[in-house]
Design brief:
single chain; 184 residues; mainly alpha; 8 helices; flat
Length: 184
């Protein structure tokens, strides 16, 4: 199950990070968008796929980090069952740091995809830790009450949270919208 001491999720962390970095770098390159696909070179064709590459890379990276934060770098269930949850805390911190970094970079570059992935997986990380650390230690009624209140709060603030850092679009002052033409 191991290759160079890495299980599958750890390999996908590296693969996802490389794809996401390639996609982000491709978006910042100045590839000529007016050329046709047949006249583009290999590098330009590769960079033209950067938005899709970034999304797939981020998805691979964050799902693999989530799995790593739960299971760690263990190859079988018997080894994993012997491990205490706090021994996997460094994976949870790395997962949270990657989500915060995605939010920060998404805010700096006004990139909604990065912000969205960062916010989504930051909340997934926090709720996963809540289940891991409090499922056995507090009464189930209190557990689900805290969960319900947190979902209500996040839901009530969801639009504001989702649009953090979006730049306000200024309406064009010289352009008047044309009324929709309808038939008869």
């Amino acid at each position: 199950m191991y290759f160079l001491g890495m299980n599958y999720p750890l390999r996908f962390v590296i693969f996802g990070a490389a794809l996401a970095a390639l996609g982000i770098a491709g978006q910042h390159s100045s590839a000529d968008a007016s050329s046709t696909a047949s006249s583009l070179g290999f590098r330009d064709r590769l960079l033209s796929m950067s938005p899709q590459t970034k999304v797939i890379g981020l998805l691979n990276l964050f799902v693999a980090l989530w799995i790593m934060s739960i299971f760690g770098n263990y190859g079988d269930m018997t080894q994993w069952q012997k491990v205490r949850q706090y021994e996997l805390l460094h994976w949870s911190i790395l997962f949270g740091a990657a989500a915060i970094a995605a939010i920060w970079y998404g805010l700096r570059q006004d990139d909604g995809v990065l912000r969205g992935f960062g916010l989504t997986f930051l909340f997934i990380n926090l709720y996963t830790r809540f289940f891991e650390y409090f499922w056995d230690s507090i009464h189930k009624a209190v557990f689900f009450a805290v969960l319900a209140v947190s979902f209500w709060y996040v839901g009530s603030k969801a639009e504001a949270i989702w649009h953090i850092g979006q730049r306000k679009l200024q309406p064009n002052k010289g352009v008047q919208p044309t009324p929709a033409s309808g038939r008869g």
